[in-house]
Amino acid sequence: MRASRLVTLLFTLQRLREATAGELARELEVSERTIYRDVAALSAAGVPLFTEPGRGGGIRLVDGWRTRLDGLTAQEAAALFAVGAPQVLAELGMSAALAGAQAKLLATLPAGMREHARTVAERFHLDAPGWFHTPHQVTQLAAVAEAVWGQQRLRISYRRRTDVVDRTIEPLGVVVKAGTWYLAARSVSGARVDSARSVSGARVDSPDTVLTYRVDRIVAAEPTGEGFTRPDGFDLASWWADATTRFASQMLRVTVRLRLGPRGVKMLSHVTDSDAAAQAIARAGPPDAEGWREVELDVEEIAVAASQLTGLGGEVEALDPPELRTALAAAGAALAERNAPR
Question: 197-201, 231-235, 290-294: which has the minimum mean pLDDT?
């Protein structure tokens, strides 16, 4: 984190040429004491900057000095072109920004590295959503993203399962997973969001509680004209990892025991949660004489598991709990009766 902050501080000073510690602290969302420590670290590393105390003073870079991309390797430069994720950036309205950044980078690279970066870009393309994925209509993504960049409160209308509720929120960051956009935000008004659809499923117990909103469920978003202060130390990537872990533990709360045929083992991830299926197979016992394996699978609930496992047909046998075996037997009988020869 500190290394990234030092680079950001360096480029901020290069852009502004001079600024007060307070201005830099607001720009980087840290304390002034942190700014002074980082300035000392940059100076020790050989960056020619100095501070002027008193009124009208500040932190300055020596006139004419600029950092360069000398340390960028061919692989690092190529990575900037290879992972552009054009669909994601287009939805954020950043396609032009990416093209401009890539053009500037190409202009600074030596000829050999430039050719290598172009070669990778021609041979690798990232298409993030899965197969048969129909993109959700995210009509308010631009408004949400603008509020995130500007740290502005939003008044939103949020569609839940049965109704639409109004909320005033403080948007902290956006995440795209498997083609679906999510918003991390603190709720300023309202008791809770639709926990069945939120990743974290959390209630608003305090003003600092960060909730997850699906952006395609935001039907209207309007800035309130009020700014807000981000929580100290909030890291979007870390928060998202914790939120998804909590969500998985809340959703997959029942364990069932199954016997799977060879084809059932291969197909399990296609009919149930892929991560849960992978863990079940990894923990499975050895095949028996018929090639069948016994597994323990984490599922949301028995009714959901029965619906999913019918997709395996005769390649699955429910061992425990008994109600799952009964549900599969009933589903099989209904299917056989419906499709009996005429």
Answer: 197-201
CB 204 within 8 A of CB 187: yes
Classify residue 56 as left (phi > 0), alpha (psi -120 to 50) or beta. left
Task: Give me the pLDDT at residue 130, please.
Answer: 61
Question: pTM score, two decimals?
Answer: 0.53
CB atoms within 10 A of CB 35: 23
User: Nearest-CA neighbor of 215 among 179, 188, 239?
Assistant: 179
Kindly report the number of other CB atoms within 10 A of residue 140's CB atom. 22
Q: Tokens 């600029």 correspond to what residue?
A: 66
Tokens, residue 31: 């304390």
Instruction: List, for residues 171-208, the tens digit of each pLDDT value.
Output: 999 888 767 888 999 988 654 444 334 444 434 444 56
Of 37-46, 101-110, 197-206, which one has max mean pLDDT? 37-46
Q: Do strands 210-214 and 180-187 pair parallel, antiparallel, or not at all (unpaired)? A: antiparallel
Identify the sign of the CA torsion 274, 280, 286, 291: negative
Residues 6+ apart with CB under 8 A from 341: none
136: helix, strand or coil: coil
- Strand-pairing partners, residue 111, are none
Work out the end-to-end distance of the chain between its first and last CA atoms, rounded to an integer number of angstroms.
69
CA distance 187 to 182: 15
Q: What does the radius of gyration of the chain's CA atoms come to, in whole angstroms?
A: 27
Residue 229, burial from CB neighbour count under 10 angstroms (0-12, 13-18, 19+): exposed
Please count the helices (runs of H) and the strands (runs of E) in the chain: 13, 11
Cβ atoms of 53 and 59 closer than 8 Å: no
> Hey, is 80 helix, strand or coil?
helix
Whether omega before 223 lies within 30 degrees of 0, making that bond cis, reads no
Q: Would you say 307 and 322 are in contact if contact means Cβ atoms under 8 Å apart?
A: no
